[in-house]
Amino acid sequence: MPDNNDNVYDLVVVGGGPAGMMAAITAAQHGVSVLMIDKNSMLGKKLLLTGGGRCNLTHAGTPEELIEHIPYSGKCLFKAFHRFHSPELIAFFEQLGVSLVEDANGKYFPVSQQAREIQVVMTRALKIYGVEVVRSKVLNLDKTPGYYTIHSADGNFRAKHVLISTGGSTYPGTGSSGDGYKFAGLFGHTIYPVEPGLVPLESPFLASGELAGISLQRVGLQCFTHSGKLKFSHKGEMLFTHDGVSGPLILDASLYLLEYDFPVELVFTLPKDYATTFPKRFLQFFATTLAEQEKIGSDISIRFRCTQKKGWDHAMITLGGVSMQEIDPQTFESKLAPGLFFAGEVLDCHGKTGGYNLQIAFSTGYMVGETVAKRKTPL
Known about the structure:
Layout: E1 8-14, H1 18-28, E2 34-38, E3 58-59, H2 63-67, H3 78-83, H4 86-95, E4 100-102, E5 107-110, H5 115-128, E6 132-135, E7 138-144, E8 147-152, E9 155-164, H6 179-186, E10 191-197, E11 201-202, E12 215-224, E13 230-240, E14 244-246, H7 248-254, E15 264-269, H8 274-277, H9 280-285, H10 287-296, E16 301-306, E17 308-309, E18 317-322, E19 340-342, H11 356-376
């Protein structure tokens, strides 16, 4: 592919995940010339893995309620969520011919319960709205007066605006190899160290696997670091695995537990009807502990230590990334390099389980697409 030196695109999107696709579609709908560069043979591959293959796209609630489920950087999404959150996302997919349905827990899925449908309709929308797609690996990015040059393995492209939406370090098979951090670093951005997020925890205490497969509901959890600091406290559903614990409650707790916090102590408070509602296998395993506490008459709890988080092969999201302090929350444009944008998982912004992370990707992508469109033709 020869160098494309005669054409300057309004927007080049580097990375064809949910954030990049949303930005490209939004911009192109308003007549913006958009080029998407992605090294995968299929766009939106990570969408196929979300929600257990059913694609949990978003969660019900007001912008403020959604922000409560995004620790650390949630307030940076105030403008984005007020402009584009679950109602707007539902309408967006309705326009593409996909209806979403809310489950009993407030999660939204396509009616088909098939993530593939979302990947297909977004890919089709890119084509309908005239987004050019190049399958290539981006090698470098530099800026000259008036435009950026994107150097790919198959040629160079110029753009007035560039969006880095390359994802984090999770699911490397989908193309997430951390390239976006390198590009951000070229322009002086702070990159917080990355580590696996939304992951199960390992515990030698449970290494026998005797409790594997047991799921408990309505369990209260407190997580304490090795120094005794309380890092997480909530109630929900958990699952015992062959070497530790998982389930929504544990995955959410892992967002608050960094690698230097380990080992951690987990304290589970059981509901009052545990003796009649919890599995016999669980009651037998903790029989001595439960009997002792019944005698005392206090709240019934169990506790044990976890030594580490599971690794990248189990991670649903990436913790860390491009500092939100260097990003304009009104537009998701770099404060250090005008015309350079970031959206999605490449940012140091992550949420709990339940569709919050895809909503972050869609909202930030939308804000970028709308911002570029307004600069070309005021909406």
